[in-house]
Amino acid sequence: MERLALVTGAASGIGRAITERFVADGLRVLAADIDTTGLQRLTDELGDRVITAHCDVTDEASVAAVAAQAGELGGLHVAVANAGRGTFSPIVDHPLDEWRAILDLCLTGVFVTVKHAAGAMHDGGSIITIASLNATQPSAGMAAYCAAKAGVVMLTRVAAMELGARRIRVNTIAPGLVETNATTAFFMVPGVVDEFVENTTVGRFAQPVDIANMASFLAGDESTFVSGSLFPVDGGAGTKKYPDLPAAFARLTPPAE
Ligand SMILES: NC(=O)c1ccc[n+]([C@@H]2O[C@H](COP(=O)([O-])OP(=O)(O)OC[C@H]3O[C@@H](n4cnc5c(N)ncnc54)[C@H](O)[C@@H]3O)[C@@H](O)[C@H]2O)c1
Question: Which structural domains are found in the chain, ordered by start?
């Protein structure tokens, strides 16, 4: 049977690279995103192996509808809960609505995706969540994102326990710095990327394909004994020190007169 994968946040960056890799691996991909223009580009370039769906992972009904669509297409074999974004604010200044928005997207959005994807999934399937280096390595100024991503790791482990009876495996990938639309600001602030690279042992930042390679492994038959685990794809950055982002961003702000 042809295997079907759901990828959220598929229109850009890591989700897009995972979609491309899954298609190359022979899967059909149900590509879900709020960015309809980006989804159209995806089908223009990848053809009918990709079925697009407008889906907002912060809206449970929207995710449930995509899961129902997956059921009509024959059911899921793989799901990647990837949609997410960061924010930057010290805790004392952090607007509560922005905190809630990040938790809603990066943690609750993953919960809702796992919940409905599992319901539409064949026994023996594979669910992959996308956490971050920030799930384990804190960054000043990124409390909401770090807390949400740490939550994704534990959510993933609980899901692996609950879904194990159906031989569904659930794992999380924790990327370091990846060059995508989400990290454009880091590439524009002098010194930040250098600090990220110094933080690695391999001396470079990642491209989305680096993360897609791990997703391909976790989606495939070579990882059937792997579940409930965290896979850093960070060039060894977890061994070192996270960049001092408040200092870097302060360099952009001229001192008050
Ligand atoms: N880029 C990095 O350095 C990095 C590092 C660690 C973790 N991550 C994580 O990887 C994931 C993908 O990030 P990226 O760098 O590819 O970002 P990106 O901005 O390139 O892509 C994110 C995609 O998610 C979509 N999206 C946003 N809100 C959505 C919603 N409510 N419902 C559905 N789709 C939505 C966007 O439209 C976009 O297509 C995120 O969870 C991010 O936190 C990224």
Answer: 4-178+207-233 (3.40.50.720)
